[in-house]
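Hello again,

I reread your note about wanting to compare the complex against the isolated chains. To keep things tidy I'm splitting this into two emails, and this first one only covers the full assembly. Below are the input lines as submitted, including protein chains and any nucleic acid or small-molecule components. They are followed by the predicted structure of everything together. The single-chain runs will come separately.
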Amino acid sequence: MKQLEDILKTTTPIPLNRKTVLNITYSSIWTKDIVNAILKSFDVSNEQFNVLRILRGKKGSPANLQDIQDRMINKMSNTTRLVDKLILKGYVERFTCEINRRKVEIFITKKGLEILKEIDPIIDRTESEITSNLTAKELETLNFLLTKLRS
Amino acid sequence: MKQLEDILKTTTPIPLNRKTVLNITYSSIWTKDIVNAILKSFDVSNEQFNVLRILRGKKGSPANLQDIQDRMINKMSNTTRLVDKLILKGYVERFTCEINRRKVEIFITKKGLEILKEIDPIIDRTESEITSNLTAKELETLNFLLTKLRS
DNA sequence: AACATACATTTGTATATACAAATATTGTAT
DNA sequence: ATACAATATTTGTATATACAAATGTATGTT
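Full-complex prediction:
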């Protein structure tokens, strides 16, 4: 098992508080890199993939920008431009809401649903691989500790 | 304790594999936001602070860009421009290495050491607060599980 | 109706991240 | 000595992130 001290190439031991923060940060980068490598072959960024899945979850009903931001794990400060890119790729459509013209209505297109259908099983498999070194019980404990940390 | 399903405002339960990946990602964002809020008041970014601490760790001996990148938790693809910003702020100096002119020699300045001395105790306290909901034993377990996950 | 206020999104600017290509320097083989 | 590969950094381009300001729309008060 590669300890954090090895990864950061430091000889002095890191205090437990800092070590925990660094370990979480490093693990997050580690998982992100693995997932990104998969998504890259589909020319879709992590955030774009996230938005597409949120839109699919709406099952045909429109989403506005706030809906999307609320459901995004990394609160983007600029969902407008992210949606712009998805429109260019043909995965998403945007209309202004007729009832409240300040709002926009964003829908996933058929093409968007199709690319998700392609990517989904690969991401599922990747997420299984990422967590394969821990038992189900260990995963439960890890989730519990992370949730408690933030509470 | 706020579960991930609440955070992401989803009603459907998330499978354990994906939940773990998301929990790590979200926890990383959570800690980053807290630390960033502190650093922001010093007009230093997380990455800049990281580099300054790496340079201080060299204790007067020069660091080149690869040294810095190797010790950075988030492998920046562009340490050149990050160092540029630190030079502008007067926290760092850069010279070309006379022995191997492809390399650069980067040093932290007195001003850089002084700002670190100011920031350090505040970050220490912040890291203690971040981890204050878990006992030492729980923190050990968390670190163990994250390390095992990546092994 | 006129005004201020709140809301939802867009735009602007700076920095960060990711990757590819360009530049400069050094080491090695012939 | 020349050519070629390896090394170390820099530059370019695209996207992502963070925050502030601007725009356009709706709502409440007088």
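For quick reference: Chain A has one domain: 43-150.

B.
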